[in-house]
TrEMBL record:
MF annotations from Gene Ontology: glial cell-derived neurotrophic factor receptor binding; growth factor activity; receptor tyrosine kinase binding
Gene3D superfamilies: Cystine-knot cytokines
SMART domains xref list: TGFB
Skewed-composition ranges (Low complexity): 9-36
Organism domain of life: Eukaryota
Function: Growth factor that supports the survival of sympathetic neurons in culture. May regulate the development and maintenance of the CNS. Involved in the development of the neural crest. Might control the size of non-neuronal cell population such as haemopoietic cells. Acts by binding to its coreceptor, GFRA2, leading to autophosphorylation and activation of the RET receptor. Heparan sulfate-binding is required for signaling.
Name used for this protein in its record: Neurturin
Family the entry assigns: Belongs to the TGF-beta family. GDNF subfamily.
InterPro entries given in the database record: Cystine-knot_cytokine, GDNF_fam, TGF-b_C
């Protein structure tokens, strides 16, 4: 009935010798120690290790090297960017942040850029304050937008290019912008920066 891990010492032949041995020993217990069970967390850990070791055995040596180099590269990128953990498992909080970022309401924003970066064909190092409209218009959906979307899904409207949702666009524009180009020629551009944004 007893398993082989427990070891019992043979009993002494006489009770006097037993009493002598127990009195001569220190206060430490002479009973054998019971075997300890490993915690369940360790059992799960060992099962995970055996699972992943069997999984890694199916890879070739070149594939394992490629996997390790990719992990090392991601770790160094995370440390250089100031993060303190491997970006292997993105947290659900970051997913919610991205979802909130996609549904920001329509608003006016600004950016300082050079005239050459505006893409209007002018060569100039002068900088201007470019104001633009950014955000979504989910709250501004009207019956028109819903009906238009339904007509498009039922193939009632096929060829025309129509937008079935409101768009964040400028409602008014800022003052005209004047600048000198690289050849000292003077130009004025109108309706360049947004002044007010709305869903249209």
């Amino acid at each position: 009935m007893l398993n082989g891990s427990r070891k019992y010492s043979s009993l002494p032949s006489s009770p006097s010798s037993s009493w002598a041995s127990s009195s001569s020993s220190s206060s430490s217990s002479s009973l054998p120690a019971a075997p300890r069970r490993s915690p369940r967390a360790l059992q799960r850990h060992s099962s995970l290790l055996s699972h992943y070791s069997s999984l890694l055995e199916s890879y070739t040596e070149g594939e394992i090297r490629q996997l390790i180099s990719a992990l090392v590269e991601r770790y160094s990128q995370a440390m250089n960017s100031g993060a303190h953990e491997l970006p292997l498992f993105p947290r659900s909080g970051s997913r919610r942040k991205r979802a909130r970022a996609r549904h920001k309401p329509c608003a006016l924003k600004e950016l300082e850029v050079s005239v050459s970066e505006l893409g209007l064909g002018y060569e100039s190092d002068e900088t201007v304050l470019f104001r633009y409209c950014s955000g979504t218009c989910e709250a501004a959906v009207r019956s028109y937008d819903l009906s238009l979307k339904s007509m498009r899904s039922k193939k009632k409207i096929k060829k025309e290019k129509v937008r079935a949702r409101p768009c964040c666009r400028p409602l008014a524009y800022d003052d005209d912008v004047s600048f000198l180009d690289a050849y000292n020629r003077y130009y004025t551009v109108n309706e360049l920066s947004a002044k007010e944004c709305g869903c249209v």
